[in-house]
Structure formats: C-alpha cells, structure tokens
Write a structure and sequence with these properties.
- By secondary structure, this protein is an alpha+beta fold.
- It has one domain.
- Helices cover 51% and strands 6% of the residues.
- The protein contains twelve helices and four strands; from the N terminus they run αααβααβββααααααα.
- A four-stranded mixed sheet has the order 1-2-4-3, sandwiched between helices.
- β3 and β4 form a beta hairpin.
- The longest helix is centred in the last third of the chain and has 21 residues, at 176-196.
- The radius of gyration is 17 Å and the shape is globular.
- The relative contact order is 0.18.
- Residues 1-33 have low confidence and may be disordered.
Length: 249
C-alpha cells in the first residue's frame, strides 16, 4: 500500500521528528532486500514502550489538520489513476465506507478531514495524500471484504501523515531505505491502532498478504529491494508489535 502522492511543502504541517527517534538514523543505504536492518531499527523504536506511550507520541506528533482551502489545493493535483473514466461517484458506497472506518478516523482525529475517493482499477490499489485524501480502487474493496481488515488498511494510510515530510524528502532523493522504514513504521502504528480499538491485527496482515500477492507484478514491487519492504518484513513487524503490546490492551 504505497503512498505515491507528491506533497506540497506549503500546505503540509511541519513534522520535525519521527515517532520515537529520528528516522534518518538508518537512511544511508538502499539494501538489503531482506530488510533485516530496517525491521530491527523499527522494532527498536518500540522497545520498552507501552501501548499508551505510543498513543501519546502519536497525539504529540500529529500535524495540525489541513484547512478546507489547503485540502482543495492538494486535491486539485489529483491522482494519476483517477479521471472521468475511472472515478466512482457512489454516495451510498462512500457513506458505507466512512461508517465502517469511523472508529479508525476518530482514533487518528481525522473524521470530516480525510476524504475517500473511489476509482475503478483491476489491481488492489490505495493511494494517499497525507492528511487529506485516500484513494481506493474497487478491486481493493473486493479483496478487503471484512470491516476489520478494512480498518487496518485505512489505519495504515492514515499513519502516513505522521511521516509526510520524511516521505517527501526520501521520495525526492530516491532514498529507498528511508521509504522502507516509513512503510514499516506505518505498519507498526497500524498495529497499535488496531490493538487500542480491540481489533485483531491479523485481519490487517491477511489483507496485506492478499493485496501484495494479487499478482506477480505486485510481488516484485514488494520484494524489499526498492521503496517497499518485503512482505515477510512487514508481517514480522506486525506480529512483533502485537506480541509486545497485546497484553496491554
């Protein structure tokens, strides 16, 4: 679930630090494909922390919400895959999506702020403009059928807002190591979100596997050699965070 929207510096609130320690501490290489170094780094950020510690950090680091005008400007740049031929204007489906993910939006303080966009595509795709828009393909909605899995993938996309500026810098400099770390950090925050909402993180893991294993092309994009960590690394982070914090719910 790669966040591929480009962020405009003038309308994104400043994020000066990462969740628990500077993300740039491991931003010096673009390998290995196994992502062992990045996985270890991410898990170390949560070591000796409680679930409530993580929530408090998220509350402290959450950027100020975009205003309506700022979101309108960001929306004007659009998504490459959404046009008049692919957009899905189905208010019933959208309202149902908001209803199903209400608790996740509330947890991240983005009810009435983050807007969903639906579009037609044969691949399960999610795209994010952090803090403003989440675009979801109809194929993704067909694959991620149950409400708890849907909560997980939306929680992941919402988590990208905490690392918006880091993502922008890494994206512009092709810093794949940092991009992989951000993705793993978002998986960790997704797990924290689900545990606090008393949702089984395995639902998110299952959805992640279905999306990534949808096609050979998707598997290659998620092999851990470029901007996306390997599926194995992501599942390991989710499992480890769940194991650490499950007793603290």
């Amino acid at each position: 679930m790669n966040s591929i929207g480009l962020f405009q510096r003038s309308i994104i609130a400043a994020i000066t630090v990462s969740l628990l320690s500077p993300i740039t501490a491991l931003a010096h290489g673009n390998t290995p494909s196994s992502n062992i170094a990045e996985t270890t780094f991410v898990l170390n950020q949560f070591r000796d922390k409680t679930l409530d510690d993580c929530v408090q950090y998220m509350d402290r680091l959450r950027p100020k919400a975009l205003t309506g005008d700022e979101k309108t400007k960001l929306k004007a740049y659009g998504f490459d895959l959404i046009n008049n031929d692919t957009v899905i204007n189905d208010s019933t489906l959208l309202n149902e999506l908001y209803r199903k993910t209400q608790k996740v939006l509330e947890f991240h303080h983005r009810v009435g702020i983050v807007e969903y966009l639906l579009f037609k595509n044969r691949d399960p795709i999610l795209m994010t403009k952090a803090g403003a828009l989440i675009a979801i393909s109809n194929r993704a909605l067909k694959i991620v059928k149950d409400d708890e899995a849907l909560a997980g993938i939306i929680a992941h996309e919402l988590s990208h807002e905490y690392f918006a500026l880091q993502f922008l810098r890494a994206h512009n400099t092709h810093d794949y190591a940092t991009l992989r770390i951000i993705e793993l950090m978002c998986d960790a925050l997704t797990t924290v979100t689900m545990l606090k909402l008393e949702i089984d993180p395995q639902r998110y893991s299952d959805a992640l596997q279905k999306i990534i294993c949808h096609s050979k092309a998707s598997e290659q994009l998620n092999d851990g050699s470029r901007e996306m960590p390997s599926l194995e690394a992501r599942l390991h982070v989710i499992s480890a965070i769940e194991k650490q914090f499950s007793s603290q719910k």
